[in-house]
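Backbones bend. To wit:
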Amino acid sequence: MPTTASGRIVILAVTSQVRPTAGVGEAAVAKWKEAGLLKPSVIKPVLTTLERSLLLRKLGRLEEEDRGALREVLRAILGE
């Protein structure tokens, strides 16, 4: 899990509140079951950091297809 220079981890919001049309900077998690999620989910363009010690557990890992979608969300957030 990537950490910042200060030892914090970078996290993005993921929600199971799926809307018929994705908002700007959102991406559906295509392989949500394989990622360890309980329901169909969407990556939201909400980015923050968290002290590593506050992390309770890792829920899963995105498949390569969804990591590509995550990169697109990050591009939308960061404007690259």
In short: The first strand starts at residue 8 and ends at 15.
